[in-house]
Amino acid sequence: MTRLKLKLFVLSFLVESCICPQVVKLDRFTFDPDDPSLFVSESAILDQDFNRSYISGHVVLTRELNDLMITSSMDIIRSHRPEMRLYKVTLNFCSILNNAYKNKFVKTLYHSFAAFLNTRPKCPLKANFNYSFERAYVDERLIPSLIPDCTYRLKMSFQLKSKQLAHMQLDGRYMSKSGP
Ligand SMILES: *[C@@H]1O[C@H](CO)[C@@H](O)[C@H](O)[C@H]1NC(C)=O
Ligand SMILES: *[C@@H]1O[C@H](CO)[C@@H](O)[C@H](O)[C@H]1NC(C)=O
């Protein structure tokens, strides 16, 4: 197996082994253009409700985009322990949007997020189109049971032919209610 396949396999396994319920809180949500000439406008909004955090946002691009790659990593921090990287993967973002990955983890993420979008984006992404999502939240059932109570940092960055276009970051806390 290639390293990427192995990582995706491990992620799929984690999804399979999920139990509930848990609480996922977001404390910070940012989206930052690295190439400002690409964006007409963009936003990243975090709303806190009683037990849940919601994110909304939009992007309007100045030009059409194809062949996008996404690099995503997740680190968790527990008290008095070294920081731990759960994964770091680079995937073809257009293949994700076309739902072309057979991997269960990637498909699950796609379907859970696609529901919050105003449209199902396809590559090439259009210029001057408002891609937005409204009050998206993490389905707690997607969180692997093996993840301990922790704070987490989820990073995503978008590249075109290794040029960095934009990056986003989500910082939050994860608590398993049923845990000790
Ligand atoms: C929030 O959590 C409480 C206690 O676990 C639960 O009773 C309530 O239904 C939850 N509310 C929402 C909106 O999830
Ligand atoms: C895009 O849509 C979002 C969500 O409906 C809205 O808040 C935002 O103002 C719109 N931006 C532009 C530039 O049309």
TrEMBL record:
Pfam families given in the database record: DUF1091 (PF06477)
Signal peptide: 1-20
Family annotation (InterPro entries): DUF1091 (IPR010512)
Keywords: Signal
Record's keyword annotation contains Signal: yes
SMART domains given in the database record: DM8
Name of this protein: Uncharacterized protein
Species assigned in the record: Drosophila ananassae (Fruit fly)
Phylogenetic placement of the source organism: Eukaryota, Metazoa, Ecdysozoa, Arthropoda, Hexapoda
Gene name linked to the record: Dana\GF23305
